[in-house]
Amino acid sequence: MSPIVKLTDVHKSFGPLTVLDGLNMEVAQGEKVALIGPSGSGKSTVLRTIMTLERINGGEIEIDGEPLWHMKKGDRLVPANEAHLRKMRSKVGMVFQQFNLFPHWTVLKNVMNPVCSVLGLPAKEAKARAEELLALVGLKDKHHEYPGRLSGGQQQRVAIARALALRPRIMLFDEVTSALDPELVGEVLNVLRMLAHEHDLTMIMVTHQMGFAREIADRVLFFENGRIAEAGKPEKVFTRPDSERTRAFLNAVLQG
Predict the structure, then answer these.
(1) Is the pLDDT of residue 28 over 90?
(2) Whose CA is closest to 93, among 177, 174, 23?
(3) How far is it, in rounded angstroms, from Cα 83 to Cα 248?
(4) Are strands 32-36 and 202-206 parallel, antiparallel or unpaired?
(5) pLDDT tens-digit map of 172-218
(6) Among 65, 53, 55, which Cα is nearest to 11's?
(7) Which of 51, 103, 186, 226 might form a disulfide with 42, Cβ 3.0–4.6 angstroms?
(8) Helix/strand number for the chain, H first, E second
(9) CB neighbour list of residue 170: distance below 8 Å, 6 or more residues apart
(10) Domains, the chain, ranges and CATH?
(11) What value does the CA radius of gyration of the chain take, rounded to a whole number of Å?
């Protein structure tokens, strides 16, 4: 079966700084993949290019068998127009480090409004979907609260519900616990565990939570200098890494 996400020789630079250096990566439908590695190794940039938040400088990304940054015109590929990018973007949801909720909207409105504006669903249907997802992430009793009255963990769970509300086939999680106080990390990781175990979502997660990556991921990719330096099952990568660089990184993180 074809991968649902495929990156081929992807390059991305910010000025003179090369962030992705000929990256090749595939993710299967329903696979849970954890991206680990030092800061600046390109992990978050991978997610941002898949979400079309950062344009690549070279190579190709395919989502569900279709080119992301290009589209077919007759028998050739041309740069994607906004309509094509919008169509492709609808297959992908992303949750960021910061919650990015609208402070003047209730929790319910934060989740249901994108469903109305992006998918064009009637308000009644969007409301029902939002209520269902808020229950799923353990916030059934918070519909009418405003984000400022919630803990960071609760706000992040609202952000997860909002992303899920658009029914993406692929979910991207970029260090979703890094802005949280330590005692709130667990409640967000529990939601991700539930999604991983109970739903056929493709999940790509950038994380420094090594125990969580080991538990949840089908595969772990270790990034170094904009490339995948090591890849494998969590048990293999975490206990018997092939690369000395992977070993040094894991020792530093686990000791820290």
Answers:
(1) yes
(2) 174
(3) 45
(4) parallel
(5) 999 999 889 888 999 999 999 999 988 889 999 999 999 999 999 99
(6) 55
(7) 226
(8) 9, 12
(9) 4, 5, 27, 50, 63, 91, 92, 93, 201, 202, 203, 204
(10) 1-91+171-256 (3.40.50.300), 97-167 (no CATH)
(11) 19
Q: What percent of the chain has pLDDT over 90?
A: 87
Residues in the chain: 256
DSSP structure string for 214-230: HHH-SEEEEEETTEEEE
Token pair belonging to 127: 């409301």
The contacts of residue 40 (CB under 8 Å, 6+ apart) are 19
DSSP 139: -
Spatial distance between the Cα atoms of 10 and 20, rounded to a whole number of angstroms:
7
Rounded to whole angstroms, the Cα distance separating 136 from 167 reads 14
Interhelix angle 107-119/123-136, nearest 10 degrees = 130
Integer Cα distance of 180 and 127 in angstroms:
28
Smallest CA-to-CA distance from 36 within 179, 185, 172, 210 is with 210
Using the structure block, give the residue that is written with the tokens 């919630």.
Answer: 150
Helices marked H in 25-96 — which ranges?
A: 43-50, 82-89
Report phi then psi at 163, rounded to 5.
-65, -40
Rounded to two decimals, the pTM is: 0.94
